[in-house]
Sequence to fold (615 residues):
Amino acid sequence: MDRSRGYRVFQVINAVILTGVVFVTLYPFVNIIARSFSEERYIVNGEVSVLPRGFNLTTYKIVVSDSMFWTNYANTVLYTVVATAIAMLLTTCYAYVLSKKHLKGRTFLIWVAVFTMIFSGGLIPNYVLVNSLGLTNSIWAIVLPNAISVFNLLVMKAFFEGLPQELEEAAAIDGLNTYGILWRVVLPLSKAVIATMVLFYAVSFWNSWFTAFLYLNEQDLFPVTIYLRNLIAGATGAESAGAAIADVSQAASNIQSVTIMLTVLPILAVYPFVQRYFVSGVMLGAVKG
Amino acid sequence: MSTTLDNPPRDTRPAGAQPGRHKRARPGTWRHALRRDWQLYSLAILPLLFFAIFRYAPMLGNVIAFRKFEPGGNIFGERWVGLRYVKMFLDDPTFWNVFTNTLILGGLTLLFCFPLPIVLALLLNEVRNRRMKRFLQSVSYLPHFLSMVIVAAIVMQMLAIDGPINQLVKALGGQPTVFMQKPEWFRAIFVSSEVWQTVGWGTILYLAALTTIDQQLYEAARMDGAGRWRQIWHVTLPGIRPTAITLLILNIGTFMAVGFEKVLLLYNPLTYPTADVISTYLYRMGVESSNLSYAAAIGLFEALIGVVLISSANVISRRTVGTSLW
Fold:
């Protein structure tokens, strides 16, 4: 009896703590949604919390009518699609090679990849390299330097190793060469892991900003993350803002809220559907270690 | 395009081992392997080029820490200058300031972001309603999927003079503060935003480890009269120990690189005294001021400390608890 009462007390405390966690996690989003729809004077007076005050769409109209915002948004889409396609091509090929246990030199090929997880070249040599390759101010500066994530590579390798060998052997007897086996036998069996990998890459390229910040310096090449960065950097007074809408008299934080909302929206929209793929992908990677 | 990029090890194939046409290759030799698996090897060419150019060439590129580098010149530098740049940063008071900041910020991050996922995972594990548990997990994973820029923007909005935190301060009778410009607040801001962003996602591996614990162990513990606390102490915690130690080693390995992108987004000259870390300092030195050799020397130093930290954590954990990464 005593134990079960103690347990009930614990369950109540636990519920309170976890409610607090949910509140702390979600409150910033709620607040930013509220701000984005609010009138400027309520924001400036610090009166906007959970619900919008003086509901209006003016700020959305201002941000949406900035053509640079859409240019940058389109860039994000373009970079994400191209980078994910190239990353998938390279990762799939290499993971398939590494999954072949009989292959001579396999251990070396694995170490080529794994060593880069332990020791990386570092910011400056990478910067020098990309500059000297002449990739600056082009999509290739975003796409190429991060074309293979070793974590994703290992997840995919583990998946390929788990596929039944008999199918591939049968296909080889039927006269398919290695490329044919990979394309017609292995990949159709790997739709789940491919979907997961595409999501992993797409989200990381969609969210990335630093490579763009480092290697792009023309405004019409920026992804939307840099658009937002320049907006918030202007707000700290630390660096000059690149935003073309600075002259509009809407409160800066109001415009920031709207830009945050519009940038985060695609992620929030797909999140409920893709979340479990991420969880299973991480598990697979962790088991592999 | 520089021809020197072909230097890093790309392949172990001996130069002369082309597939022979007339002689029959014996199994186990390179000639045999190439003949049988050349299509597989061909799939590895592009990925190996990627690793050679974008991973191993920059590793070798670190020699500019010891060589004079001219912008636009050879990416491996022009001539040897020995330890000039190393001496330079060791004599640089700003370097020691950012070094201390890195240790403090990394230490605080480790102190909070390592144990809190364990606590949250244990709490989530006690939720009996499956649907509720899944909802809680979904919510707590969410911040992990946001761009660092969005996280930084959210932090600034929360701490703005008209933002929720200052509303709370006012409601409690305090004076609103421009938190982002106060060096004394930077560490708290950084660590709490890091907790917000990472703790939920950090529970995944622990929750997985928790489901693998044998239920019979709990029953046995109950038979021996163990209450819930003692069950957690004697069954649950030992069950997740290997996971915890692995993650601890990995966390220690990234200690020196602490939050580079986030610091870069959140700091400003007013908060440099507490916010500037090694990685942001070498970014400013190298990219903004074009002292590339000097910055590379600092970067190499940082990377070496990282390797030393992760190796020693690994050795210590292997000797004391028997778990290690390699």
